Target: Thioredoxin family protein
Amino acid sequence: MRKIILSILFVKLFLFASYNEGKLVFENKCSSCHLPFVQMQTLKKNFFEKSNKLLKLKAPTVNMLAYAIMHSPKKVGDPNDEEMREIEIEEYLKSYLVKPDRFNSICDEHILKYYDKKPSMKGELSDDDYVNLAIFFMQYDKYNKSKKAVKINSDFDEDEIILKAKQNEKLILVYATSKTCYYCKKMDKEVFSKNEVQKLLNKNYILLEVDMDKNKLPFNLTKYYKRVTPTFFVLDNNANYLKTYVGSWSKKDFIDILKENLK
Model:
């Protein structure tokens, strides 16, 4: 039994390491063309209502790529055979990135017309890069279901968050916390970790987490702060202040707070 548990832990650690390696490959070698996550509702509006004039995308976003590879009608490999599917995704990526061909694209044919012609990446990626990229796309949904908090630091760009909030039609939720805050840790464990909370957050909010021991609140929120952690500030997508919620909350009460601000 112990050997089985250790084997499972090893596999999980291997996949997590490979996912992070694949994420680094994507960020370092692909992100200049492919933007990060954009809400699916916004993507649909962009392409099918605004003819790409809203976002002006020249290539699919990372979540569009993950969806196309894993879930679209043109998905790669057999979902019931994970090991073989990893190999098939790896081979597809090698084939397409070395010799891009629109006729071999797995993207929606109705939106291909908006994209620039992709240049070849021949010689830019190693065999390990392709393996890690394949695992990155296979694990993308899993590692992006959790709380996606943007950590605030001295280099924080407020304009970038406002642009992201507008593009994705989301509110901004600023979470004032501290590593020594017992009730913050309690909320992280008992509230933020719950699927229902995560879905509401990911769909409707950009979550900004501020360690008050190290950094200052963004968007001129200091005047509303009562030096209590946790504290939550809700802003609209122009970063205009709406409400403050002080203290720790149960899952039910926090869900009510999130829903209350959507009305």
